[in-house]
Amino acid sequence: MQTSGKRLYSVFELYRIMTLAFRSIPLLKKAKAAGKMNKPFLERIMLAVTEVNGCAMCSYYHTKVALEEGFSEEEIRNMLGGKFADVPQEELEGVLFAQHYADQRGKPTRESWQRVVDTYGETGAYGVLAVTRMIMMGNATGIPAGSFLLRFRGKADPRSNVFYEIMMMLAMLLFMIPAALNAMILNVFKVPILKYS
């Protein structure tokens, strides 16, 4: 997996990403209950976002899950290379949106969001958004944790350093409760769920 050139998340971005992920949990539950999100679609979104962010730990885990779901090695390799020729047509708009959302660091264009709503309806679109935000939280925490662990095998992420890794892992633990509470308050007061670039 190519990681050079992909910028790591800051501690401030981590808090925002965690808050948005927690805000999205009810949206994902609603989309799943409505039959708008199945496991292969979820995995394709997760692989697409992981490719953008360059998280080795998430790439390893979601490759394993995708293989268990029956994905071919070629499809997984293509997705982790940013190629979506194997993605079923009915999932392509969601996968492309997820990639765009990650590439724009959580601030998609209004037009890209509207295409997802037009394709999947509001409930399905919010499901796509929720899964995208969940894997972004996984990537934002997985990159420093994975790099820290791989550092002992001589395979640390070249974008990272030990100070960043420890700082981000500690921040993740410290932010867990405040981000969850912030998400709950924002949902209670019905603050808009999405901001555009």
Compact summary:
By secondary structure, this protein is mostly helical. The chain has one domain (22-188): Up-down Bundle (AhpD-like).
Description:
With 197 residues, the protein is mainly α. It has a single domain, classed as AhpD-like. 73% of the residues lie in helices and 0% in strands. It is built from seven helices and no strands.
Uncertain runs are 1-5
Order of helices and strands: HHHHHHH
Radius of gyration: 16 Å
Number of domain units: 1
Q: What's the β-strand tally?
A: 0
What count of helical segments does DSSP give?
Answer: 7
What gross morphology would you assign? globular
- What CATH architecture do you see? Up-down Bundle
Name the beta content range.
under 5%
Secondary-structure-based class equals mainly alpha
Biggest sheet layout? none
* Terminus-to-terminus distance: 28 Å
Arithmetic mean of pLDDT: 95
Question: How does the SSE layout of this entry go?
Answer:
Layout: H1 11-33, H2 39-53, H3 56-68, H4 73-80, H5 89-103, H6 110-151, H7 162-188
Helix pairs in contact: 1-6, 1-7, 2-3, 2-5, 2-6, 5-6, 6-7
Keywords for this structure?
single chain, 197 residues, mainly alpha, AhpD-like, 0% strand, globular
